[in-house]
Amino acid sequence: MKPLVLICSNNANFYVLLAHILVREGFQAALVSEDEVVDWATAKQVTAIILDSAEDSGRTLRTCAAIKTSGAASRIPTIALVSSGDERYYLALLKAGIDENFVRPVSPARLLAYLCSLPRHGTNDTRPIDPSREPVRTFGPLRLERGRRLVGYGDKETQFGPIEFNLLQCLLEAPGRVRSRLELIEAAWPPNRYAQPRTVDVHIGRLRRALERLTGRPLIRTIRATGYALDIDES
């Protein structure tokens, strides 16, 4: 089955153009409204959700919040296409849980590169995973499965967004070592993406909360004016 991308947009012409590009590259595309997106994301095997905020960034913000608080659909990578001049919504979308922002007009190549980096099925894909194709790395009690960006702890597991997963990998490479924000940006963001220190703080906050929900204890330390470190018992 071709990976399905949901597109939430009020611009039919934009949807037709974007859907044509996606289908040509091996994806399926479906146009959904703000009221339908959560139901679609829950019922289907969805690879990603694209929210087009060209006409109403506030509505995109509300839709993102609805997706990220909806249970199963909350784990699906969600992308916002933000109009030039609406960059003020960037941090607000990050706080609402958005996985990636692109400023319109976005390069199709950049968007496709991001989509192609994602796991090919949504989080409701229940087919067994071949361990030989999904190597698992262990860091003390944590298990990381890079292919699906899954993190396990005991009998629990959760899926992380691309940036949060990259940040976690960077922090785990040297537990206890303080990583500066610049180091974290270099490790977690693509080289052609600009990220501010405040953006790092927002993503670290999301990572910290997700790890606490998973493990029941705080793992990430903030070192004032320096950066962050992750403490974990590797024995």
Q: Which secondary structure elements does this structure contain, and how are they paired or packed?
A:
Elements lengths: L3 E5 L3 H13 L3 E5 L4 H7 L2 E7 L4 H12 L9 E6 L5 H8 L3 E5 L3 H9 L19 E4 L2 E4 L4 E4 L2 E4 L2 H11 L6 E2 H8 L8 H19 L4 E4 L3 E4 L5
Parallel strand pairs: 1-2, 1-3, 3-4, 4-5
Antiparallel strand pairs: 6-7, 7-8, 8-9, 10-12, 11-12
Helix pairs in contact: 3-4, 6-7, 6-8
Give a written overview of the molecule.
The protein is of the alpha/beta class and about 240 residues long. It has 8 helices and 12 strands. The strands form 3 sheets. Strands 2-1-3-4-5 form a 5-stranded parallel β-sheet, sandwiched between helices. Strands 6-7-8-9 form a 4-stranded antiparallel β-sheet, with helices on one face. A 3-stranded antiparallel β-sheet has the order 10-12-11.
